[in-house]
Every structure is written in structure tokens, then in C-alpha cells.
Design goal:
This protein has 103 residues and is mainly alpha-helical. The chain is 42% helix and 4% strand. It has a domain at 7-47: Glu-tRNAGln amidotransferase C subunit, N-terminal domain (Histone, subunit A, Orthogonal Bundle).
Length: 103
Amino acid sequence: MAKTLTRADVQRIATLARLELTPEEIALFADQLTAILAYADQVQQVDTSDPELRATAPHDETPLQATRADEAAPGLPRDVVLEQAPDADLSAGVFKVPRVLGS
């Protein structure tokens, strides 16, 4: 059974997270966090010991691993894409992007 969080619990969590909460927020979050913990407890109660039960979604018989076949599709012409890019070198055929590493 999930624990009911008190206002003191929420205040302690807020202090650890360096959050300043109003009394109204503390009351609201106590209810919300208690509901989240109750749902997590409910999820933990689901029997997952039978792999056949996990192979299909509960709402239908479609296997979760079902995927569509890959089909090649034409891409956009490079010139069209480069013309629409905010900062591109058309003569080199490349995008210019800000340096990320070693900046």
C-alpha cells in the first residue's frame, strides 16, 4: 500500500530540492504525490511473471513488437534544403552550425 505523504514530508522534499513552496502548494503537492505513489504501487502489483501475457497490449491482440516494413522514399533535393537553412554554405553544400566541442 502506498504511503500518504504529509505536509511535513512534502516540505522536507522541497527543502532537499531547494524549492520554496507556499502552504497551498505544499497541500496540493501532498495530494498529488500521494496519488502518484498510489498509482506506482498499483503498477507494481501487475503480474509480469508470464511472458505470454507481456507479449500483447492489453487493449488488443497486436504484438508490441509489430513494426511496419521499411520503404525507401525520395528525400529532398540538397539545394532546396540548403536554400531554406538559416546558415548554409551553398557552394560547399553544407550546413553551418555553432561549435559545440572545444568552444
